[in-house]
Amino acid sequence: MKKYSKLLSLLLAGALVVGSFAGCGGSDSSSDSSASKADSSSESGAADGEVFKIGGIGPTTGAAAIYGQAVKNAMELAVKEINEAGGINGYQIEMNYQDDEHDAEKSVNAYNTLKDWGMQALLGTVTSTPCIAVSTEAANDNMFLLTPSGSAVDCVAPENAFRVCFSDPNQGMASAQYIGENGLAEKVAVIYDSSDVYSSGIYEKFAEEAGNQPFEVVSAEAFTADNNKDFSTQLQKAKDAGADLVFLPIYYTEAALILGQADKMGYDTKFFGCDGLDGILTVENFDTALAEGVMLLTPFAADAEDEATQNFVSTYKENYGDIPNQFAADAYDGMYAIKAAFEDQDITPDMEASDICEAAKAGMTEITIQGLTGGEDGISWSADGEPNKSPKAVVIADGAYTAM
Questions:
Q1: Chain-centre distance of CA 394, in angstroms?
Q2: For the residues 211-240, what does the mean pLDDT come to?
Q3: Which phi-psi region, left, alpha or beta, contains residue 266 (left: φ > 0; alpha: ψ -120 to 50)?
Q4: Which CATH superfamily is domain 169-298 in?
Q5: Which of 18-22, 112-116, 322-326 has the weakest average pLDDT?
Q6: Portions of the chain given CATH number 3.40.50.2300
Q7: CATH assignment, 1-166+305-389
């Protein structure tokens, strides 16, 4: 069972009004949806029209579309592979993916659309604030939820919710440890978004763990969603404090501005971030040369030499003309985790969604999958919904993410 504190978090989740991307605000534009029916076959339950209905929710339009589209693409690839290999317990998967534009209200609307469709499990949502809102609804329905990239602590507060990515505190601690253990800096400055649960959650744990590491935090400057264009003050304080590394637990849009402004003021230092920086090479009108040497903690490196990663990257590029990011990798692993948990508990699509949820919860604590993001020891899950896996770090070199 989850700890009692998670029940309190669940009650408080509806009161959260701040935005958070990640792994990861809101938009007022209208929502698009897309549904993809998996290839049917004449075998097993598919012949009788019996399929597992698995939904997905994430932004395919708006400011965070790079995250949601990657999740949708990878989910489609995994569903196709699983169906071609015989499905889950002999049953095919039907997938329905809804765009929430990284907006909590629209994400709840998307969830209700999927529920009306007959959804039996949810791989989503992609971003944290929508995920908190949807996880509350899913808990009320006892719907199994596995978020690939919702990293805020409260995303998996309910007992029905699990995640593939690292939590915000986990990222903060791991970042401090990586910087310290690898001797990347002696003096560290932090620039973070105090209005964002993702950014502030990472910063708080980073600051706590920094006390155990052989570097000094010499500057910690915040900004908010209402003041996220001019970072000259934060950068000047970091420079004046002699910081030889700036930690950025923020998103790639603001990070691109920071790198550009640091260059203009002649501040030559190292930059280190978390999964929110994944996407910085795609920012419109951004000089990607400024990102050379930027490091980020991530569970996935597209240039890894293992066969599974290379096959995934090749297939993804062939289908979508792009290199997959960690959000795609987490979603791909998430679909295979659902398959493994369902098979561990002999779940069939004629079961009620609530019964599927109860069985899947048990299955998640029994399975270990190798996955793209699991490292040598793979990925397993504890009953509190958190994954157990090894973090990795990448550096941007020659315009590409390269494993460190």
A1: 16
A2: 97
A3: left
A4: Response regulator (3.40.50.2300)
A5: 18-22
A6: 1-166+305-389, 169-298
A7: 3.40.50.2300
